[in-house]
Amino acid sequence: MTRATTTADLRTIDLFEDLDDEALAEWAAVTEPFTAAAGEIVADKGKREGVLLLFSGLVQTLLVEGGRTEPAGLHHPPTWMGAISVLTADRSASACGPRPSASSRASRPTTSAGSPSRTPASTSAS
């Protein structure tokens, strides 16, 4: 069983650097910790909404378009993925047209946490 996410875990991620302990505790309460083996898909566009937090391991983002899969980047811990669309509530296509599908795959065993597709109340934009 994966242990609960703590405020100390979140403190390592720069996305949360301006939050106080009370706000971090709200985030910790809504995260869903999980582990993934190398090769396992940890996020798939359209199937998982919310922020993905990476505490250990390595995650590769892949773009899928027209039956082709292309590597799009590596994420090294501690880091976050998917936060911008959550914080801005932007789930629409870009101004340049539809975005290609994307998925993220663990390249090494990872320890991660996911959050819901909404932010805790105290950290939402006014």
What's this, in brief?
With 126 residues, the chain is of the alpha+beta class. It is built from 3 helices and 6 strands; from the N terminus they run ααβββββαβ.
The total domain count is 1
**CATH homologous superfamily heading:** Jelly Rolls
The CATH architecture would be Sandwich
Instruction: Output mean pLDDT.
Output: 79
Roughly what fraction of the amino acids lie in strands?
35-45%
Total number of β-strand segments? 6
CATH topology description: Jelly Rolls
Radius of gyration, in Å, reads: 15 Å
Largest sheet data = 6 strands, antiparallel
Coarse morphology: globular
Order of helices and strands: HHEEEEEHE
User: Span between N and C termini?
Assistant: 37 Å
Broad CATH class: Mainly Beta
Poorly predicted runs are 92-97, 121-126
Number of helices: 3
Oligomer classification:
single chain
Helix and strand composition category: alpha+beta
What level of helicity do the residues show? 10-25%
